[in-house]
Amino acid sequence: MKKTLWLFPAIFVFNIAIAQDFSKHPNTGKKGWEPLFKSDLSNATFEKDVWTFSDGVFTASKDECLWSEKAYDDFMLDLEFKNADGTNSGVIVHATDLKEWIPHSVEIQIADDYSDKWKNVSPTWQCAAVFGHQAVTKRTVKPAGEWNHMTITCKGQKIWIVLNGELVNEFDMSQYTSAKTNPDGTAIPEWLSNPLSELPLHGNIGFQGKHAGAPIYFRNIMIRELK
Fold first, then answer.
1. Of 154, 150, 187, 192, the residue nearest 173 (C-alpha)
2. pTM
3. Helix (H, G, I), strand (E, B) or coil at 6
4. DSSP-assigned letter for residue 93
5. Residue ranges of domains in the chain, CATH in brackets
6. For residues 157 and 159, what is the distance between their CA atoms, to the nearest angstrom?
7. pLDDT tens digits for 190-223?
8. Would you say 53 and 180 are in contact if contact means Cβ atoms under 8 Å apart?
C-alpha cells in the first residue's frame, strides 16, 4: 500500500510533463519534425509548372493547390506565409478529394485583412478563420509584405490555430452538424455542402495558390505527426 501511494504522484507528474500544449508555436528543431515537401516537390501533387520553389519560398502562378502526396491523421503543421495586397489563400486539412476539395476538407483561411477587398467581409472569411465557420478571437495577421508564423494542430476533430504567437482559433468539428447553419446561427456558404462533423479525418494537406488575382508565399513548412 505504501509503495502504491508513493508511485501515484510520480506517475501524475510524468503525465503532466508529457501533456502537449497546442496554444504556442512549437520548436521544429526537435525530433519528429520534418519538411512537408522536398525542395524539388517530388513528394507533392500539383498541376505541372504552377508551383515553384526558389530561395526557400513556395509560390504559385495560378489558382491551383499544392497537395501533400501523403495523407495524414493527427499532426502539427508549422509554416510561414507572406501576403501580397489582396491575397486570399488558405491551408487545407482533412482533404479526401483533391479535385473537388472545397466540400471535402477544412480550410484555414489566409487573407490580407487590411486590403480594401477583404477588410469588410465576414470575419469567417478573414485570416486564420476556419473558412465559413468560425472567426478568430483576435486579429494578429501582419500587413502585406511581412512574414507571418502560423501553427495548425489537428487532433481528432479539434483544430488549434496559432498566428504570430497567439492562439486565435480553437475549433471543434463535432459541433458543426449542419451544412447550412453554424452553431451560432450564421449561414454557411452554400458550396461548403458537407457538415464538418461528418468529414473523414484522414486526408491530404493542401495550400491554395494564386486565388482572386493575388499571390501568396510560403516557406519553412514543417510537420510532425501526433501519436
1. 154
2. 0.91
3. helix
4. E
5. 39-225 (2.60.120.560)
6. 7
7. 999 999 999 999 999 999 999 999 999 999 999 9
8. no
